[in-house]
Structure formats: C-alpha cells, structure tokens
Amino acid sequence: MIQENILSDEFMSLTRELLENNREVTLNVYGTSMRPFFQHRKTIVTLVNPIEPLQQYDVVLYYSQNKYILHRILQIKENDLIICGDANTQFEYVNKLFVFGVVKSFQTDKIKTDSHDKKYLKKVRLWALLRPLRPFLLRIYDTYLKD
Q1: DSSP states of 74-139
Q2: Residue 81 lies in a domain
Q3: Which of 19, 54, 91, 107 is deepest in the core (most CB within 10 A)?
Q4: Which pLDDT score, from 0 to 100, does residue 141 have?
Q5: Range of the domain at 104
Q6: pTM of the entire structure?
Q7: How far from 94 is each of 13, 55, 61, 80, 97, CA to CA, in Å?
Q8: Half-sphere exposure of 96 (CA within 13 A, CB side)
Q9: How many CB atoms lie within 10 A of CB 91?
Q10: Per the domain annotation, does 4 fall within a domain?
Q11: 48: β partners
C-alpha cells in the first residue's frame, strides 16, 4: 500500500483557502511534537481562521521552513509569536502573518475538548512551566502511562 504525505502543498493550499473563507477544517494530527496533548494519528483537530486576536496557549497552524507546523503559542510580542511544540524544548519565532489556522477543538479517543476549556488550559499552563523537564516526563509517560 502506498501512502502519500497528508500535509502536501496542494492539500495545505486547499486548507488555507477554506480557513481564509471562514470554513472549519478538521485534520488528523501527524507527528509527535504536540505530545502529550495531541497523539500521532489519534487526535483530530478542528481549525478555524484566526479572526479573533491570538491568545497565549492557542495551538496554531503556520508555515515555516518550507513545512506546515501545528504548535502552541507561549508568548505574543506585537507581530511575533514565540511558539513551541508541547513535546519540544526549543522556542520558535514566527511572524503572525505566517499563521493561517487556530485549533478550536480537538478529539482523542472519542473525547472532544474545546481549546478554551479551563481544565485543559490548567494542564497546558503546568506543562509550559515544565518545559525543561519534558524529555524526561515524556519517557515516563511513554513507559508507564500511555495505553
């Protein structure tokens, strides 16, 4: 069986067009950079056009270094965002102009979560504080807590 990269340029161009026309887009998450909140091929995200001002801890879809990336905003500085994948430790610096989608909600194992859910955001804030310990914590998660 031949698989094609789901995040091809053509597919993402269509995604961008739909978002720019204020349509919601639902995608499977591919990759491990957003663990433990988003799981590779198990989490489905619903994206919307970032019409409202972006907020700290929003998860955004953006274009950088010739690829499309879904990561979390940690800080906002005028037109620039400091972004990091939940499983990563290094910051990325992205201009707001390269952001074309924001996660409205996500679903893993039939459990749907709104991106502004207070319980979820408490976990996100704690995880952000533990950034230096993420590699160690993810090893524990993978060994003892993951299905």
Answers
A1: EEEETTEEEEE-TT--S-EEEEGGGEEEEEEEEEETTEEEETT-HHHHHHHHHHHHTGGGHHHHHH
A2: yes
A3: 19
A4: 85
A5: 9-145
A6: 0.89
A7: 19, 14, 11, 6, 8
A8: 15
A9: 14
A10: no
A11: 102
Q: How far is Cα 46 from Cα 54, in angstroms, rounded to an integer?
A: 16
Q: What are the tokens at 48?
A: 């919307």
Q: Is the pLDDT of residue 5 over 80?
A: no
Work out how many domains the chain is built from and give that number.
1
For the record, the structure tokens of 36 come out as 């433990």
Q: What amino acid occupies position 38? A: F
CATH code of the domain containing 59: 2.10.109.10
d(CA 76, CA 53): 10
With respect to residue 1, please indicate whether it lies within any of the assigned structural domains.
no
Q: What angle do CA 91, 92, 95 make, to 5 degrees?
A: 140
Query: How much of the chain is helix, strand and coil, in % rounded to 5?
Result: 30, 35, 35
pLDDT in tens, 99-126: 999 999 999 999 999 999 999 999 999 9
User: Hey, what are 91's tokens?
Assistant: 């910051």
- The size of the chain, in residues, is 147
